[in-house]
């Protein structure tokens, strides 16, 4: 993609043994902020904060950006606050496209705050990652149900998020698209049940082995304790509960799956009734990244 | 060639197709479909199923998510039922079924389906050839949706019927799992299946005839819950 069509581009390369920004460009409505020092100086990593002017994405905005993480370097891409997508004017859809290339022995950590779509918003995002053997990637992608304090619960019109990871020869490693649209065959709010936040965490590559092992064990322990035996304690043919509530649904549901050749990747899917419990889960599970990137995510 | 002989051929082909179609959709076909609950067992475990309304809602959600995620693969495979297309669709679906429980279930059912079909539908030698070629190379997992589309295409089913058939067997198998999980009796299951058939048709209408790269999940909660199947202490089903 030529620079002319992009809203932003950053190149991080290892120069003289340190990860350095060798190119940084952004134009309205996108802005990159790269602090000189994000963590202790002995940690080699570049932190990039991605912002939009006005603090949110306005109807019809199209933002595309690219990131190159060179061999051996470490980059963190994050936001300053939840990405707000404002209401759609005239059915216009806002779009974000992000493409990243991760080199050998390199680490990219994408740890944004969640997307919050306001009532009637229409938003689509696509994130494409190209990796080589030896690349490592942490990818967090999450969305809340809207401004619940204003009574907006899964009230937006369209949200689409695509996360694709390809090998350098173009073969797909991980392809995921979630499409949440009002007026499906089953109503959107019903598809989400009582959950207000959905999140996905992808952990890929050799530098994340310890994080993968820990998260798989922790999720298994957490969920095993909450699941009840399907057969014995259930009898749905009895009269339904007169109070019509489901007090037993776990406030946070999560599951882990390995993917890819030699199970090189782990994907965690989370549904939660509160945003705070997901922040807490992410803080806890990603704290082991601190030695790699200098700061603990979501603190 | 006599007129009578020519006019007999299309009718014979059409009825022959019906016999193959009914056999393909019959639950007695040994594809191991009964080992899978589409996340229903895990949904019970996570307290999502409180009563019969919840079961109906769950089945509708499974149909919608299968429609948006898997119908494009059935469609594409049935339109060009050949080895190369199967290979490409299989690789793509393997990368898309990110939930390990669902991915393994898809491979188990697809492998069993192509094994049965290549043994039974001997008038289609390409089925056996395709199966043996990919078993040898190990480059194809035999995911269910593309294999189903391939077989439908090769026996001569049009792509719309193939897609409707896929939604039919999905509905049939989830409801069947519900009876074995003691959520509904056999009579109630028959009533429910007929009641939901309008919704199932709406799913076909909405999600049919799309390219595989348009495949998406529309009920992400199902993926999260199905992934919990492995954490259940005691299980009746594989998935």
Could you explain the architecture of this structure?
With 299 residues, chain A is mainly β. Chain A has one domain. Chain A has four helices and 18 strands. Chain A has helices at residues 188-191, 209-224, 275-286, 290-293; strands at residues 8-15, 18-26, 30-33, 46-52, 56-57, 62-69, 74-79, 83-85, 94-102, 107-111, 115-117, 122-131, 136-144, 158-167, 172-181, 197-204, 252-259, 265-272. In chain A, strands 3, 4, 5, 7, 8, 10, 11, 13, 16, 17 and 18 form an eleven-stranded mixed β-sheet that branches. Chain A has a seven-stranded mixed β-sheet with strand order 2-1-6-9-12-14-15, with no helix packed on it. Chain A is globular, with a radius of gyration of 20 Å. The two termini of chain A are 35 Å apart. Chain B has a domain at 70-228. Chain B is built from ten helices and no strands. In chain B, helix 3 crosses helix 9 and helix 5 packs across helix 6 (125-137). Chain B is globular. The N and C termini of chain B lie far apart (55 Å). At the A-B interface, strand 15, helix 2, strand 17 and strand 18 of A face helix 2, helix 3, helix 4, helix 5 and helix 9 of B.
Keywords:
heterodimer; A: 299 residues; mainly beta; eleven-stranded mixed β-sheet; seven-stranded mixed β-sheet; 4 helices; 18 strands; globular; B: 239 residues; mainly alpha; 10 helices; disordered N terminus
Poorly predicted runs of chain A: 230-247
Shape of chain B: globular
Q: What's the assembly state of these chains?
A: heterodimer
Q: Give the rounded overall mean pLDDT of chain A.
A: 90
Query: Which percent range fits the helix content of chain A?
Result: 10-25%
